[in-house]
Amino acid sequence: MDLMRQLSRLSRGGALLAALTLGMAGLFKIAAFAREAFIASRFGLSSFTDAYFASQQFPLILVAFMFGAFSLAFTPAYATEKRETGRVAWLPGLLVYGGLLGGLLTLLMLGLAPWLLRALNNAPEPQGVATLAILSVSFAPVIWLGIWAGAMIATGRNLLAMFVTGLPYLSMTVLLIGLYSIGKLDVFGLPVSFLAGFGIVGCSTLIWISARECQGAKFVAVLEPWKMPGFRHFLSQLRASSIENVGYAANQLLLVYFVARAGTGAVSANTCAMRVGMLGFSLLGQPLAQLVQAKLCAAPEEAQSAVFRRWLLAISSMVLTFAAVLYAWREPVARLVYLHGKFSSLELSRVVEIVPAWLAYFVVASLNAIAARYLFSRARGSEYVRLQLCAYAAANLIRIAFWGRLSAPEVIWCSVLTEGCALLVNLRSCLPRKNAKADEAPRIILHTPEPASSASLYVEALAGALAAAQTPVCVVCPANYEAREALERHPLIEVRVCRDRATQVSVSVFTKIIENLSFVMSSAKTLWRATQPGDIVHLQYVLHLPFGLIFFLCAWAKRAHIVFTVHDPLPHKFLFPRALLGFEHMSYGLAYKWSEVLIVHSAAGKRTLVETFDVRAEKIRVIPHGPYELKKKVRACEEADRLEVLCFGSLRENKGLHLAIQSVQTLAREGVPVRLTIAGQVVNRNEEAYWTRCRALIDPTADAVRLIETFVPYEDLAELFSNCHCFLLPYTTFSSDSGVAYMALANAKPIMATDAGGLGWLLDHSGGGIRIPEATIAGVSAALRQTLELGAAKLEHKGQMGAQWVLAECGWPRVARETQEVYTEFIADLPSSGAPAEVAREMLAFEGAAHE
After folding, report:
1. Which of 103, 324, 393, 708 has the greatest CB tally within 10 Å of its CB?
2. What does 526-557 look like in DSSP terms, one character per residue?
3. What is the reported pLDDT for 123?
4. CB distance 363 to 323 below 8 Å
5. CA–CA separation, 228 vs 220, rounded Å?
6. Which pLDDT band, with edges at 50, 70 and 90, does 563 fall under?
7. Residues whose CB falls within 8 Å of the CB of residue 491, separated by 6 or more in sequence, listed in order
8. Nearest CA among 605, 564, 583, 581 for reference residue 734
9. CA distance 34 to 46
10. What is d(CA 623, CA 811) in angstroms, rounded to the nearest whole number?
11. DSSP readout, 431-445?
12. Which of 829 and 69 is assigned the larger pLDDT?
């Protein structure tokens, strides 16, 4: 609903028009899927279907040309002529020469039939030649249909144009089913249904437009239309828009050629996968691109950039969401459509394997379609054409370089890679950076989606440290952000809020998805409104990727600089199931590549980015995490009879809680005086099963483990910390830095930890830690025995040493200073921090107010 409200604000009637457009596109796509399912069930994958689907590309390329490049030039030329003179005098000649061109294409296709079949299908048979001949007759009707559709769009009858141009596909489906019902369906039913669909509708539109537009046409208008200025202007525009379409057609044919090298059935499997993967292009990409073109043409020149940005954000959200959903459900969808009759499970697996590549191509093609319409409307179409031709050439050079070694999906990924790069450059060209006005200096925008816990503490402390160093910041956060009121009281901090972020775990998956999508749209809209060209958007704790990519897109589309603090180079636990891990991993890689600077908190985090995601080392800055010193003083633990250890924070598997529970209970059974307190709650539903297993490990009859299974309020933390001698952090698989460890040291509590992530660096330098030799029960038990032997006095001394070190070496004044150094790479006149002592005093004063 948020997205539809946004669309409705784009222009009057925009949402209704978009809904009707998408609804009609969906109707015809359902008919197309029904046809594909019927074909798959009747014919399966064979050399004949290879011949049909390969030959079908020729008229379909012409269809794409007529509704793409041709419409791009013809529609405005027709509208201008009609508006100025009341009629389009050169239209009769265009219809005549269009029909002649269709006839020439038919003859050319027939003459080249043997060569074409050998190139696109490894077995040229008589059936293949006949199929090619039947399909070739459809060229002229396709041209007439394209001319009629352009005329209808130019006169404002977009929905009528979309309805009539969709009728051929509906007619094909009806005819195929009709032939089957009377027992007349054979191998030629496929090309005959294609010809009948386009032939009948195309010839009908020729009769329609001739009767309405061509009566009383003069000789010169029919045979020599090029003598008319309006027609010559149309030809000049058509020449420019056609160049890219020729490159696209060649690239598509070469794509089929390289796919055919993968063996019999590969072309058919690719076509079936394309129908699924490109479903969104016909449902969303093409119809909405047409709407964007109409809005751009109607907007004054100075407003076109703003129109483009708003529509780009809305359409990008829809396209990415659609692609993610279809990716997750690709196998059930393919199974529903194709697994019938002669279509086997093995053939289905070949189709499903190719679908992800086409989904990625769908996203790239949809956004490229928006960029193309903007650039052509601004008379900069040549920029788009050059980049696309380079992308097509690069894709085929890659295919040639890996000749014979590429699978069908990899052939398509070549186009995704190169055209995706062209898209990025196109969008950068569409969104030029404006020079900031003298009275509107670039700003620092801290964005966080997290409302509570250590994530909110970090953003609060960073914003306070920057403000204390006289650097104004804007914080974009949820409405239920726990430090909101404290930040709003600071004169140098502006707070922009979106809707509340729901944090309940005990809700259905569907409810959680709806809540998260609503929050993403609200937060993205707030970030969009807060950001101006030249600003620095510093992203913190983004949502699970790929959903968090929308925030990067917002900042990038606004031409802002992107700084990303990577608190977790790898997620604590991946969100998607195992089959989709590659997609989620790719999303993290995109976030890191889209950022101009990445900030990590330790060398371990930097190493993960470089080795796992191939991030350039010079792009990464290592800045300490920053300690959380509580306002209320934490006392030394008064318990003298046993060792009190604390596991604190969100309950996760990589924290090694099972090791802590088993180690402590084992020692307790041996008579060792030790007790473990676990304080926190599960915040990720993927951790619930793990925590259930941990809870089952706890012996309810013993006093060795105490549970405080809830979120601990800030005001209760000092008391909780005071009742323990040290923190226990037996982390296992971990590539991040522990905010809990920094909080423990800042409040004079030593840490007992493994070397995982950045913990090893803390143990080496802080003087406030006891090392766990290995993440096993034996390793944790040995560290507990060593800690017990130290005694309370030495543990207290270690805690004090750790506090002195972490506040001096990792304090917020240093964090602010080094973060400002990152900002000055983009904003040269950014105010520098003051003296460390002064900054520290201001920061402490602010923290006192923040935690009152």
Report:
1. 324
2. HHHHH--TT-EEEEESPPSTTTTHHHHHHHHH
3. 46
4. yes
5. 9
6. very high
7. none
8. 605
9. 20
10. 11
11. SPPPPPPTTS---EE
12. 69
